[in-house]
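Long-time lurker. I teach an intro course on protein structure, and each term I like to show students one example going from raw sequence to a predicted 3D structure in token notation. This year I'd like something fresh instead of my usual example. Would anyone be willing to generate the tokens for the chain below so I can use it in lecture? Attribution to the forum is fine with me.
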Amino acid sequence: MYVCSCFGITEKQVRDHADAGACTPRQIASACKAGTDCGGCVRRIQSLLGRGDCPRRELIDSGAPEPLGAEADAVAPAVLSEAA
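-- Reply from a regular --
Happy to contribute to a lecture. Here you go:
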């Protein structure tokens, strides 16, 4: 069954990309463009991905900070001290 009619992406293709390591709709979009045109399939892609095993998602769910967040925190004090 088609998930993304804009690009002709099937459920099997989404699952294949998920098996290869794509665990977010954005990663699926990077792999096959699904969800990047009209966006009508993004919720369907989310439901196909479910809450399965994804190392990055497990880290985020456990409360581990994302790398960008940690880098932003390290930069902020320096910026504030320069302004003072």
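Some talking points for your students: Residues 35 and 42 are 5 Å apart (CA to CA). The longest helix spans residues 67-83.
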